[in-house]
Automatic annotation (TrEMBL):
The keyword Protease does not apply. Residues 149-214 form the HTH luxR-type domain. Pfam families: GerE, Response_reg. The gene is degU. Keywords: DNA-binding, Phosphoprotein, Transcription, Transcription regulation. Residues 5-121 form the Response regulatory domain. GO terms for molecular function: DNA binding. It comes from Croceibacterium atlanticum. One of its GO terms (biological process) is phosphorelay signal transduction system. This is Transcriptional regulatory protein DegU. It comes from the Bacteria. PANTHER family: DNA-BINDING TRANSCRIPTIONAL ACTIVATOR DEVR_DOSR. InterPro entries: CheY-like_superfamily, Sig_transdc_resp-reg_C-effctor, Sig_transdc_resp-reg_receiver, Tscrpt_reg_LuxR_C.
Amino acid sequence: MSKVHVALLGRNALVREGLRHILSRESFEVVESADNPAELMHPAPEGSDDTLIVLVDQSAQKYEDDEVFAIRNENENARFVFLTEQLNLEYMTQAFRLGAHGFILKSVGCESLLGSLRLVALGEKVLPGALAEKLPSISSASSVMVSKESSLDTPLSDRETEILSCLVIGLPNKLIARRLDLSEATVKVHVKGILRKLGVQNRTQAAIYALNNGFDSTFRTSSQDYSPVVHGDMDGVGAMNEHQMA
């Protein structure tokens, strides 16, 4: 199996060197390491279809989205994965909308990190498992938000508030269906009902509406080691096919 190319982007050189050491033990090859996105803006070799995973350490002194995703202008095969210390739903939603392939908490173990990157290399998208722990509280916040929103002629049902909380964190219908033990067709019906009741045109607008009307979009995690969401055949890794992130 050919090695997957990885570019490391982060302010902390020590962290980058640690990541290089971890990745070098597996089927990854760190081809570049930099603290400035501009240093990674090199065209892919002509005729190359090799995937380049750009692993971004978004801790202190976060990078602006436009400077990170500008790397894709030079290398269309780049896939962006962000390492973060906390869950910020609003930021994650925006990043996925711009083309991110995953978020990984810095508290995960090495095997979870490597498993997530392998899935990204296969075209999947990954989310932290901590989001699964937070879904009930997100749903409760959604219910409070909807009850206070006087402009709604018809309030959202309990099931619709659950699905709205899933829309906020960017889950596609297929993953929502599995998470809530529903058919995908049923989820689609509920999503249409949510859009109609909120008076918005698409799921992104629904998520923004929710965040602007009562959601606390930032969830800090404890020191507990959270792995990505369990989904599919690989334990400890949550994945979404890139074509499902509409």
